[in-house]
Each structure stands twice: as C-alpha cells, then as structure tokens.
Amino acid sequence: MDYSNSINKQADRSRLTLRLRLILAVVIIADILDLMDSNITNIAAPSIVQNIGGGESLMKWLGASYALAMGVLLVIGGRLGDRYGKRRMFLIGITGFTLASAFCGLSVNPSMLIAGRLVQGGFGALLIPQGMSILMATFSREQFPRAVSAFGPVMSLSSVIGPILAGFIIEANIGGLDWRPVFLINIVLGLVGFVAAVKLLPHDQPDSNEKLDGIGTALLGVSMLGLIFGLNEGSTAGWTILPIASLITGGVMLAAFAFRQRYADNPLIKPSLFKNKGFTSGLVLGLGFFAAVNGLAYVISLFFQLVLHLTPYEAALGLCPMAIGIVISSMVCRPLLTRLGRTVIVMGLAATLIGALGLWLTVLIKGMADTALLTTPAILLIGAGMGACFSSIYEVALGDIEHDEAGSASGSLSAVQQLAAAMGSAVVTTIFFHLQNTVGDVGAMKTSILIVAAIVCICLGLVWFMPRSAPSEEF
After folding, report:
1. Helix (H, G, I), strand (E, B), or coil: what is residue 474?
2. With contact defined as beta carbons under 8 Å apart, do 30 and 83 qualify?
C-alpha cells in the first residue's frame, strides 16, 4: 500500500501544469523553426535558381550557409544565454530569425539570399540553446523527462517536414510569389512564438562572471568557412588556387582551434572530452552519419526534380516516406534506448545502409525510367534508420562523461550536427554535380548513393567504441 502511494505521489509530481505545457510549446516552436529551415531548401532550390539564378553554387550554399552559421555559433550561443540571460537571448534570437526570414523571402539575387540565410543561422544559434536551458530551470526533476519525451517525434518530423512543406507551398504559388512564401511563412510562426515567449518565459538572472572565448569562436568560424567554401568553390569553379588555399586555411585554423581549447581559460569544448574514447567516437560517428544522410536527402530531391523532372510538389510527395519512417522509428526506438543502448544505433545504421543499397539497386535497374513510387520502399527504410539514429547517437555518446562535462558535451554534439548538415550538403552535392558531367545523371546518382553507403559502413565500425548505454535519468 505504501509502495502504491509512493508511485501515485511521484506521478502527481511529474504532471505538467497548463503554464508548463505552454512554455514547452514555445520552446518546441523555436526548434521547429530551426529544423524546418535547415532543410527547407532541399526542395525549393531548383525553383529558386530558376527564378533568381545562381546555378549549382547557389544550390549548394542555400543549405550550407544556414548550417554553417548555426553550427559555428551554436556553442557560444549557450554561453551568451548564461552571460546575458536566457530569456533575453531567446527573444533576440526569435526576433532576428523572423526578420532574416523576411529578408530571404524578399531577396532578388543569390548574394542577398545567401546573406539572409547566414543571418538566419546566426540568430538561430542564439535561439536554440536557450530552450533546453529554460526547460531545465523551469521543470522539476520529475517533470523534465516528460517534457523531453515530447521532443523526439516532433523534432524528428520537423527535420524532414520542411522540404515537404516547401513542395506544397511552391505548387500552390500563393499570391503568385512562387518560392518566396517558403521563407515568409516564418513571419507568422515567429510572431506567434515571440508573443508567447514574452508572456510565458520566466525571467532569469544573467551571470556577469561567465567568460566567452572569442578567439576560439573566431578560429572555429574561420576553419569551417574555409573548409566548406573550398569544397563548394572547387567543385563549381574548378580546383584553382582559391579553393585549395581555402581548404588549407580551414585545416590550419581547425588545428589552431584544437590547440586553443587545450589552454584557454574558458574553452568552448572541454579538453577532457577528447580523452573520452566513447564521446569522441560518437562525435565522429555523428559527423559522418548526419553529413551522409543530409547530403543524401538533398541529392534525392535534386534527382527527382533535375533528372526525373518531377515538380516540387511531386518531389515532396516522394520524400514523404522518409518523414514517415523517421517518425515511426523514433517513437518505437526511443523506449528501447534504455534497455538496448548502442544496439539501437546499430539497428538504425543497418536500416539506413540497406535502404541506401535498395535505392541504388532501383536506380541501377530503372535508370531514367525510375519514379518516386518505385523508390518508396528504400526511402521509407532510410527514414526508419535515420529515426533510430536521431534519437540515440548523441544520447549514447554522453553515456560515460562526467557530470560537469555535460553542458559542453551537449553543445559540442549539437554544433557538430549542424556543421555535418552543412558539410554533407556541400560534399554529396559536389560529387553529384561533378559526376553528372562525366558519367551522366544516373551514374552520378548511383555513385553518390554508394559513397553515402560507404560512410554508413564506417559508422558501423565506430559504434563499438561508444558507451554501451545512455546516461541514467539521475545523470
């Protein structure tokens, strides 16, 4: 009887009040804005290029520029929240993101649009880290797991709903604006999120003692810009001295960043994390996997539209099985994570690999006669694998870190996920566009898929160096 009463009391303490549910909704709206916009150009890119020009270079930079700014500034975004107040940074972030979205929607040339995407990503980096910190400060220990459990399915769906929604919006041609409402719709969501945040988010006290590593941030930013610009420019304009020098500069700056982290008073990434084999394995695995699947999703969209000549609406429908697979898999695998640990990652990687090989086989057999319907089983399986990994890779990577390393580790993993999206879209589309000129459209698609499959195989080898399980709830 006493045991039953204890269970009931714990359940009561874990219940969420209406206000807490609304605060959770505000944070989720912010994350939806980010995840949708990080991939929204996968479908919209061909329509945008047809309207304002820019060619292959614009197609590559539409997604890469957003993810680059987000990834570089994401770690310091959390520190700025500690230094100046999480609520204040949240409001600044959502305001800037909304204005940048309007700027993107009104762009008249490629340079203007890329600048808008960079600003979007920058303000997104201020916005996103504050959400989880606000939840941790607002929810009790019993309530927090219930709040976090809402993120899995919602975030997984949002990561692919952006391209699908973009296809429907472009097909509707709202007000004769073609692709522009893809960005302008954020004005409505941003305003709703801002008003709700002003009314609901709790006030917090800034910490004036929090120090920021400006030098480390600058080194990381220059290194990522050099690497991604070099990849894009080299594949588009040829491997002249500029892209080669850019890649070399990026590599040197990345080494300087790593050195800086060892000796900085307030490093962005705690040096002790890199001595943790399980964490570093998860970091590298996440970089490879997220780069591969983000690049693959983009190339599938380009193949549908540029090779099979599907409309944005038809291409969006073709990607729907990926969204379905992600949602179902994330919901099924999330409860299994505590019991199976890294085995869930193995299952997800295996499903992604089998799906990729199935897609390769479909393209091999059907060639230019391929259809979105024929690719559905393979794309559904790829989505299922993505969903299993999205909900497990980084949680398992945190399995054996120390408590005081948790904040730095989480920020590092989130930043790597964004940088992987930038690098993946750059590298895989670079391969696709380059091979189109040598082996043709079908050959380019087959080779791109095989490269993604090879990266997933490497990831399968890295899994066994990761912790066996995710951190306990007490962590």
Report:
1. coil
2. no
CA pseudo-torsion sign 55, 114, 110, 42: positive
Segment 261-283, tens digit of pLDDT: 887 777 777 777 777 777 788 88
| Lowest-confidence region among 20-24, 156-160, 429-433 | 156-160
The answer on pLDDT for 132 being more than 50 is yes
**Tokens at 350, concatenated:** 């295996």
DSSP symbol at 361: H
Neighbours of 473 (CB within 10 A): 9
Cβ-based neighbours of 238, under 8 Å, separated by 6 or more: none
How confident is the model over 227-232, as a mean pLDDT? 76
What is the distance between the alpha carbons of residues 99 and 92, in angstroms, rounded to a whole number?
Answer: 11
What is the 8-class DSSP label of residue 239?
S
Structure tokens at 200: 């609901």
The CA distance from 350 to 473, in Å, is 28
Confirm if 388 and 331 have CB atoms less than 8 A apart.
no
Contact 91, 194 (CB under 8 A): yes
The model's pTM: 0.78
Instruction: Dump pLDDT digits (tens) for 386-398.
Output: 988 876 887 787 6
Tokens 């070399």: give the residue. Answer: 248
Question: Which of 328, 302, 317 is CA-nearest to residue 386?
Answer: 328
**Selection from 61, 388, 111 nearest residue 232 by Cα:** 61
Q: At how many degrees (to 10) do helices 18-39 and 181-200 cross?
A: 160
Stretch 429-433: mean pLDDT: 81
